[in-house]
Amino acid sequence: MAFLQLRGVEKFFGQLRAIKGIELAIERGEFVVFVGPSGCGKSTLLRLIAGLETIDRGTLELDGRDITRLPSSKRDLAMVFQSYALYPHMSVFENMSFALKLAKEDPAVVRDKVERAAKILNLGPYLQRTPRELSGGQRQRVAIGRAIVRAPKVFLFDEPLSNLDAALRGQTRVEIAKLHRELGATTIYVTHDQVEAMTLADRVVVLRDGQIEQVGTPLELYDRPANQFVAQFIGTPQMNVMAASQLPQLQAALSGVPAGGFVGLRPESVALKPAGAGQVQGTVELVEALGAETLIYVNMGTGTPLVARQNTRTSLHAGDRVGIEIDAAAAHLFDAQGRVAAHG
Ligand code: ATP
Fold first, then answer.
1. Is pTM beyond 0.90 here?
2. Domains and their CATH numbers in the chain
3. At residue 93, what are phi and psi to the nearest 5 degrees?
4. Least CB-packed of 75, 79, 133, 282 within 10 Å?
């Protein structure tokens, strides 16, 4: 039996069925990321697990115990919010020790636990400061520290890095990954950022419209997306997906394209050739030279440019004619409903 088990979990907000029959098993020590577009229900699902919202249908079990109706405070989970939710008038030490004090833990044990967490999070020098005297990244680490000292069975993170600037996000992401390696704690992490999902997760749960679209390791989702939605949600720039009917040359180059179906090509699988070569011809619309990689947008007359990514520089310019070689081994085929038919 899984460590955390969701069975047929549903949530209604009035008429809105926000969470629809979620079945999910999370193993002890796993780092699972819920990802999906705004409004897909990822925060609601996390809040149902945390006990901050009531589950309308289905069950939730933790470590062999049914906790579906248990109040949040008794679930043995600790949540880290995007807003940090620190007590402004308390020092870092007091913020981190608050839950232990409430639980009437021995002061010497409290001190030891807080100091150990502070050491892991590099907060040692700041224990006597108030949150106001800290940077955003330090405040977020205090919020994480407050969760660590409780030694919960599961850590729940709700978009914890959203308030940080890009550099600090990257840095804190690395720290969270390191922390997970050190503590080995079961973690569920909500984000709308697929890069965060890909870099942190053992397994990613892609949600859309209150339902699970696919669960898998980051590279399983990247290499073998179950449908067009997952294919285009995971990966930047996103996978090129073209209606096969728009480009008869594609049908000729690839066998097994379903009737009314779609062809998907990752940008790194699009090989640009001199005009006249390859199966499809197009015109360069835009070149983005990013240094380590170059993105080339090619107009093929289909309405949406095809994006090619290469890790070399290019001498191509907007207006140049190019040929595109389609590698059948790299193509993903989808049926008319967007379900995968074949991976190259
Ligand atoms: P975001 O990334 O924008 O935070 P999300 O994927 O976390 O989105 P949720 O906040 O879980 O999405 O919301 C899922 C759906 O439930 C949305 O349609 C939202 O409007 C609705 N919803 C969430 N909380 C409530 C509430 N308290 N009352 C009514 N509707 C709600």
1. yes
2. 4-228 (3.40.50.300), 240-342 (2.40.50.140)
3. -60, -45
4. 133
